[in-house]
């Protein structure tokens, strides 16, 4: 009998099945590409079979699972679902309800800014708040691992089986940089941008954006990749780092207007056009989880508060 002693390796294989690229899995998991390759090799050695069909040299980073690899992923998915359901199972055994709220950093900042006398209550010890990028949060929502909250998407509608969604607000993406960089680029009078305008960026000025945990990565693929070589792109893992490298005056960045505040000292120029991706914010409530039935008042209170706050800033 073969025993599996490394759940993380199995998770990386399922991610490889989803993304089809060692590079993308490394970015998503926050580890190096060689570490992903080593994990797959460990699995192949343990199971005694090839799981991934790698491209030949020069054919790109694309990968394809073998029949054995697809079989493993099917079984692993069921096992990971059981592991992820452990908190709910323990809560049922102890009689303590636990809930998970999804609140990405930019949306959290919007909800908490300018609260005045109305202050959000701190979550109790039985509540977990997932403050992760919206793209990563969307994966958890699809796996039914989050009770309720707010999430962003570049899609004009959001549909997830068993999850109620309501669109609350929509913000443009744009280029943000320091005033001195704006003057250097001769963009002081510009009120909007199109992807082809990015050609004005000098070759020594990189363009920064958030990594694949965030929906910014999808917006970047539609906007920046149309005109900027990949070598000029810098991907960072959090909003504060993105602002930090931008305020240095050495880079321009892609971010939604929802993530830029007057106190940041940055100049924002939106991308304009009907076909431009936007930072759309949705409320979500998972009907398959306990909070939908047991914490109705709490869910409604969050919904009312988020609707009020986002309605005032959108």
TrEMBL record:
Residues 5-66 form the HTH lysR-type domain. GO terms for cellular component: cytosol. Coiled coil: none annotated. The keyword Ion transport does not apply. Signal peptide: none annotated. One of its GO terms (molecular function) is DNA binding. Keywords: DNA-binding, Transcription, Transcription regulation. Pfam families: HTH_1, LysR_substrate. The keyword Nucleotide-binding does not apply. PANTHER family: HTH-TYPE TRANSCRIPTIONAL REGULATOR YBHD. Belongs to the LysR transcriptional regulatory family. This is MleR transcriptional regulator. It comes from Bifidobacterium asteroides. The lineage of its organism: Bacteria, Bacillati, Actinomycetota, Actinomycetes, Bifidobacteriales.
